[in-house]
Amino acid sequence: MTPPSGKRPHRGGRPGRSGPARPAGTNQPDRSNRQAKPRPERRPDPRRAAHQLVSSVIDEQKTLADLLGRTGPLGRFDPADRARAQRLATETLRHLGRLDTLLAEHLSHMPPLPVLITLRIATYELATSEAAHGVVNSAVTHVAAMPRHNRLKGMTNAVLRKVAATAPSRWPDLPPSPLPDWLRAPLVMAWGEAGVVAMEAAHARGAPLDLTPRDPSAAADMAQRLEARVLPTGNLRIDRPVQVSRLEGFDAGEWWVQDAAAAIPARLLGARPGEKVLDMCAAPGGKTLQLAAAGAEVTALDISAARTERITENLARTGLGAEIVVADALDFDRTGWDAILLDAPCSATGTIRRHPDLPHAQDGSRIGDLIALQSGLIDHALSLLRPGGRLVFCTCSLIPDEGEVQVAEALARHPGLSTDPADLDLPGLEADWITQEGGLRLRPDHWAGLGGMDGFYIAMLRKPA
Ligand SMILES: C[S@@+](CC[C@H](N)C(=O)[O-])C[C@H]1O[C@@H](n2cnc3c(N)ncnc32)[C@H](O)[C@@H]1O
């Protein structure tokens, strides 16, 4: 059988809300402890929390970022359990296809989604060498506590014992999980089957930690202190797991976390000291920090008040300055900017290495609206630029309609608007990343030997003087 990747094959029983265990086979409320003393609160269980997270992504199309706030299911967890639950959910979603391959060999029927998710999480743990006994027992106990599905606890036990015997040896050779069809089909059209397979392999490998130094000339010294590598673009890369806030230089604001690809748009813009620069969709502010560090007079604008708080925090930590405006960019009417950076809202499909939940929390239905918003933002940004000004448009998307096509159409709509290949002659940028209309296509499978990069599309547009 082919297990679902899978939307709502089950009936009833909200995933992850199985509640306290009742004796199997009864729907009567348990009145036996009516007079009993209040039970001590049970320690939150990271596996149950991971189940709740995965269910909410697959079944309710919520992103892990939405779910990981203080009021989310990990709110009561200590940092270690929180990290474990988050890792289990993230890695289960990253490897869904591989896990389903292992499970399919032992399942004759499609289990209901809550049980399938328990099986997937346990299979991930078994495949990556957790103690089999504890994993299987915990999964069986979890299924036994699902009022509608507890009859499947025997099946859960049998399947996972078989999985435990083979999964660790098979795991390294299983092909990467395929992207869901809604995304895979357009990407195969754009980049070919081999290109998409290479991207899927990059998604399976995950992402290292990249930092942007506040002072680019200090990169080599900082790399030595942080045991990091300096990348061809000047970012630092750390391959081991670390706690970011404990790294040297965090409190002093010597650097900020930013994928190497995400750091390229502000470099391309090349803000000069004293220039008036608008960062048009700015939060949480990685690019605002780069522009401010270059000495520009920066206005950071974003529609989200909550997200702009992150810009304020980041500016305070790094000791950099920018004006912050909370507004819809389409209503913002201050003109005369020397340069504008437009990091437009998009499908974020270039960041799947870091956010493997994204393809499962979407179905592509919002992309049409995003494309319309992006082209409206490009036109509005051009109307705010001074004659001769520069606009960098970028999206962290792998879909050409959110990148190459946007810029080709903007060039057609605005006579005199141009791209210049000389603008792309920067350290670390490779000639075959340059696109026909004069932008840059970055993909997760680029720099494969260095640990990859996020997918991005970036173009610098010059307004006629
Ligand atoms: C890709 S994120 C920006 C990331 C940011 N540039 C950085 O480097 O940290 C896109 C941002 O656009 C904002 N946004 C969406 N629609 C907007 C609009 N109409 N006007 C202004 N900001 C908008 C979102 O709140 C989100 O913070």
UniProtKB/TrEMBL annotation:
Give the range the annotation lists for the signal sequence: none
Q: In Gene Ontology terms, what is a biological process of this protein?
A: RNA methylation
Q: Specify residue ranges for compositional bias: Basic and acidic residues.
A: 38-48
Which parts of the sequence are annotated with region: Disordered? 1-57
Summarize where S-adenosyl-L-methionine binds, as residue positions. Answer: C281, A282, A283, P284, G285, G286, K287, D302, D343
Domain SAM-dependent MTase RsmB/NOP-type per the UniProt entry, residue ranges: 171-464
PROSITE patterns assigned to the protein according to its UniProt record, in alphabetical order: SAM_MT_RSMB_NOP
Show the active-site residues.
Answer: C396
Q: What keywords are assigned to this protein?
A: Methyltransferase, RNA-binding, S-adenosyl-L-methionine, Transferase
One of the entry's Gene Ontology molecular-function terms is:
RNA binding
KW Hydrolase (keyword) present: no
What does the sequence similarity comment in the record state about its family? Belongs to the class I-like SAM-binding methyltransferase superfamily. RsmB/NOP family.
Q: Which PANTHER family match?
A: NOL1_NOP2_SUN FAMILY PROTEIN _ ANTITERMINATION NUSB DOMAIN-CONTAINING PROTEIN, NOP2 YEAST -RELATED NOL1/NOP2/FMU SUN DOMAIN-CONTAINING
Can you say what this protein is called? Ribosomal RNA small subunit methyltransferase B, putative
